[in-house]
UniProtKB/TrEMBL annotation:
Quaternary state and interactors: Homotetramer.
Recorded GO MF terms: hydroxyisourate hydrolase activity
Family under the similarity heading: Belongs to the transthyretin family. 5-hydroxyisourate hydrolase subfamily.
Protein name (Swiss-Prot/TrEMBL): 5-hydroxyisourate hydrolase
Family matches, as InterPro entries: Hydroxyisourate_hydrolase (IPR014306), Thyroxine_BS (IPR023418), Transthyretin/HIU_hydrolase (IPR000895), Transthyretin/HIU_hydrolase_d (IPR023416), Transthyretin/HIU_hydrolase_sf (IPR036817)
Organism: Stenomitos frigidus AS-A4
Reaction catalyzed: 5-hydroxyisourate + H2O = 5-hydroxy-2-oxo-4-ureido-2,5-dihydro-1H-imidazole-5-carboxylate + H(+)
Span of the signal peptide: none
Length: 119
């Protein structure tokens, strides 16, 4: 079985997938040093067109997804305060089993967010 990392974003303020939202994926070394692995933009379903990591690229370790919610909501909602309450939402998580599917969704509004490990 091959492991993979996926994500999706739901816009809870408007009740729809968050299409066009920028996501950066970082790996984090035990020293704290970060390496940018890729930057992607969500599709019309609020998902990435392909898994963020698969096969040998999915290694055990600590990762961070940084979701550009401030820019996204500025494009879709009017009368938001500047600077925004939420701008970039970082989610750090660990991958222990490289054969598993790690799905890390984000449910977001301009004022709150939640996440969970999905399937």
């Amino acid at each position: 079985m091959t492991g993979k990392l996926t994500t999706h974003v739901l816009d809870t303020a408007r009740g729809c997938p968050a299409a066009g939202l920028t996501i950066a994926l970082w790996s984090i070394e035990p020293s704290g040093e970060k390496t940018l692995l890729k930057t992607v933009i969500t599709n019309v379903d609020g998902r990435t067109d392909s898994p963020l990591l698969t096969d040998g690229a999915l290694q055990a370790g600590v990762y961070e997804l940084v979701f550009g919610v401030g820019e996204y909501f500025a494009q879709h909602l009017q009368d938001l305060p500047q600077p925004p309450f939420l701008n970039e939402v970082p989610l750090q998580f660990g991958i222990a089993d490289t054969t598993a599917h790690y799905h890390v969704p984000l449910l977001a509004s301009p004022w709150s967010y939640s996440t969970y490990r999905g399937s």
